[in-house]
Amino acid sequence: MTVAPRFLRPASGGRPLTVPGLVTLLLLLALPLTAPGQVTGSGSSGTASQAVDPEVAPRPVGTAVPATGPLTIDGRLDEPAWQTALPLTGFIQAIPDAGRPATEETEVRMLYDDRHLFIGAFMHDTRPDLLVSGTLERDHPGVSAHDIDLFGVFLDTFLDRRNGYLFLVNPAGAVRDGQAFDNSRNLDFAWDAVVEVATQIHDDGWTVEMAIPWTTLRFDPSRDEQLWGVNFHRSIARRNERTAWAPLDRRHQIHFAERAGTVEGPPDVPVGRNIRLKPFVLSQDGRGATLPDWRRGTQADGGLDLKWGLTPRMTMDLTWRADFSHVEVDREQVNLSRFPAFFPERREFFVENSGMFLFGEQSERNYRGGTSGADLRLFHSRRIGLEGGRPVPLLGGGRLSGQVGDTEVGILHARTGAVDEVSGDAFSVVRLRRRVGAASDVGVLVTDRQGRGGSGWNRAGGLDMNLRLGPSLLISSYAATTSRSGASDEDDWTGRLWVAWRDQLWDVSALARRVGEDFDPGIGFVQRRGMTHLYGTVGAHPRPGIPGVLDLNPYLEAHRYTSVAGEVETTRETGGLGVNFADGGDFSTRVTRRMERLESGFQVEGQGLVPAGTYRFTEAEARYQSSGNRQISGNVVGAIGGYFGGRRQSIGAGLRWQPDPRISLAVQADRNAIELGDDRFSANLYRTELRVARSTRLYLGSVVQYNEAQELLVSNLRLTWLHAPLSEAYLVFTDRRRTGNEASASERLVTLKVTRLLAF
What we know:
mainly beta, 2% helix, nine-stranded mixed sheet, 46 strands, Immunoglobulin-like, 2 helices, single chain, 51% strand
């Protein structure tokens, strides 16, 4: 691959192999193994005697000191005040050589005055011409944090070893900020901070200068001693090297609060009113017969968002006449299953602090759990202000979130307006979760959907528990029930128990869950009802002495679904192997043997029909993703095998070109060729994304998607200008049109939206 310039880098025939035979072969391929805690060399400047075990290494300690003079945030670190702070050094690798010293030195200093916390960092580098920035856009859209050079800051301001703030900066000065909850279980990158950042690239590295207003952070100013959990992160993209001030194992990230270091913070910090007002105005023009009446024609509107820090640990958010027309459109999906597709939340008001309201299935970091949020959520905010994926007016809403003692509190209420045949509804959610010990919790969540105009009501409630017993054992469980107007539900409950073990080598878990036939959360999502699901997996993550390979992941897993009457409906048995390469790429392959019993048929993407019956078939898949730290990167995936009595062949490929952090072009094509008896059809999806940035404050994004099976072409163009801190102007063009016989079923929206942040 060409090295990017400075700033950038940004089974047919024969008998199929049995799953046990495949995994036996994969385990043999994993040898020789590196024992847990042992490190291997791959170009590190450290020696074996200098290596530490990140799992048991002591946590570093540092100090923030008063600034002795004014600071100009220009990225130069040339003011005398910076020399009064003791540098925090000694960064340790997590990848590729866990436990060894970083190959390049990093120095971090912390200062403060009565208005700001200042952080200055010098990333020494022998080849600054090979730095990888990736993008100039805030929040780094379309760029993986693993593919670019980064400096990161994690601040656990209450020293609870569970939650904190995260700031990531690339050499071009683009910031990504967020919040981390539950010791890395949940991340919220929709949280936006007022922060001033500047960077400079020098002959011997690059520097970062940050000024974080005290009003941006939540902490307890009444404490006599401000001790914070703190960690710093540095990535060197061209080496796929990730390091941390407080050492971390390669499976953990900087926001793993339990393993952060400690910094003595500033005393006597003044506390402001912590009030932010963000009004907006917009002008919109809508055309198309399929648009609802309330969105057609030319109109003007406005609204207001308010954020108020009631206490150091409790925040109130209010929104009036919220509008999300500037939010990126959903990614089109090809759904080849018989269950509804799951679309994630993208709207800022609902994404922010969303981790606090999670209840149900979710992906656990570092664990293979057998389920995800696409299986069941007691609360899924896309049920508010969206009907069938199309928006309805959100008149207003409020959210109270934070912590009282050891109890997390989340209260949300929203109202939608009545349009066309959709009645306006009132939605309420209450979430309480109490901390137990250092890393465990128990909680309750209650939802209520109250329809207006006689449309009825729906209520749901449940209890959940997460127990972390030591560094490796995790137990998670929940039970929930629902009720609704006009229904005499008898089987309206769900429950689950999941037990998992994950250390440096082993990944083992078992799951049992049940979802009743009448379980129906009115503000939630359920993919499959009326079933019992059993799951188990065993896998390993050996770190072999193979040049160019970081680790391997051979594994076995099995699913078994039965109806409430006890009849087996689905089984899936999989053997697979994952490979993480030292250059940042990864490869995975798997073979799955399936059985599906259908009481009724279903239609595939509106084309072929799968009749009722019992089906047994085998499918195989392989995929490769290259490292994204080069000018050209890509991915390819291929799958082949049976499909409900027929055959399926799938291939997908993507290519990303980034000659400069100011421009990137990505294309993705996925083709699915399906044979069902005499029916032969394809379900294909194409996507193109272009991003152009003039600076860290002005950028353009364009996405074009074509779903061939649905004959749907979706285009979205968004120009963003950050005219002041957290104040934006958007010009958005969205076009949806049918390309076949329903070509007249098209719609177009053009929106100009301007926001302005006012802080008090």
